[in-house]
Amino acid sequence: MRELFASGREIMKKHTRREFGATALSVIAASVLPAPFVRAADKKYDPGASDTEIKLGQTVPHSGPGSLYGVLGRVGEAYFQMLNDKGGINGRKVKFLTMDDAYSAPKCVEATRRLVEQEEVLALYGSLGTAPQTSVHKYLNSKGVPQLLLNTGASKWNDPKNFKWTMAGLPLYPTEARILAKHVVSVKPNAKVGILYQNDDFGRDFLGPFKKVLADAGGKAQVIMEQTYDLTDPTVDSQLINLSKSGADVFYNITTGKATSQSIRKVTELGWKPLQLLSAGSTGRSILSAAGLENAKDIVAIRYNKEVGVPRYEKDPDVIAFEELRKKYLPNIDPDNTIAFAGYGQAATMGEILRRCGDDLTRANVLKQATTLAGFHSPYFLEGINYSYTPDDYTPMKTLYVSIFNGKDWDLSGQPMTE
């Protein structure tokens, strides 16, 4: 428009008002025709985007032992259908393709290649699992396809220098470990810590950062014993016996699945009464119930999300909005399905990224909007928790709550803590 007005001023100097009117009309007409000196509307597209549609992809286990996480995909479908029914995002309908990888790396590779090479999606978001996503990590980065909001907190996803197209969607395990370590220093400055950890990258992601915070605090709180276990171990009883005899008054439990349930029960059986810390991914109701809710009382873990199906949040506007979506589009999903609510929060975040893209729907701009999301509050998050992504640091969030299990629910600390 500035070019048009500039042209008008020059014409005014040379022509009468009548001549100017005719000439101005010709300039306006030229602005809608292809011409070297006239710029068309700024619309940019990569594969998966057009004037009418945006294609997104995802792989999650819709089948197999991890199939309970398939609800993430079904909620994504419902959320984008709701947006489409309201006109879409910036006038474009979203076509969301959620594919089954059965939590298998080979199947994840196959499904991801299909999404990129056959379906030609603009981006992938909300895919699940460290092992499956590692199998397509290099491939997606070599193709320049955004791999956003991953449902895994492995530290490897925070590597913008070498893998700029990949970003986690959960709190990174080191972030969680550092905040728990700060809590230990504040409540037990002379703590003697015993640790049981899974003998793989998952366990080590927690271990190193936790120990470093203790050392940086002056070293009065110390780790006095470490025990490991493998996923194939039938029990962790011998490790717990060793830890209970070590003199530790803090037990950091970096386990998953049945090992978590076994260890919580065993602590009670041994009559050991340490301050117990538990990794957030193992705080699910099914795991604690298998351990015995009474045995899990007073365990400390981090929290960053609201829950559905509990009285505490039943009047929360975001929980109410999710319930409306569930009733209309997903009536077969239980109203207390927190995994579904997590999927709702991630779909809303991906929708916000696309909204911010405007008419520049290139993969580079999708990445730009995702990496500048700092300050955005997902409907899934507790108050005071926001995304913290920057182009140089892909840590999803740096502030989390410390919480204590009261035997039925998690009581939050007064203020969130920052790593």
From TrEMBL:
Keyword set, alphabetical order: Signal
Domain Leucine-binding protein: 53-380
Presence of keyword 4Fe-4S: no
InterPro entries (alphabetical): Leu-bd, Peripla_BP_I
Gene3D superfamilies referenced in this protein's UniProt entry, alphabetically: 3.40.50.2300
Record bears the keyword Signal: yes
Family affiliation: Belongs to the leucine-binding protein family.
Listed name of the protein: ABC transporter substrate-binding protein
Originating species: Bradyrhizobium pachyrhizi
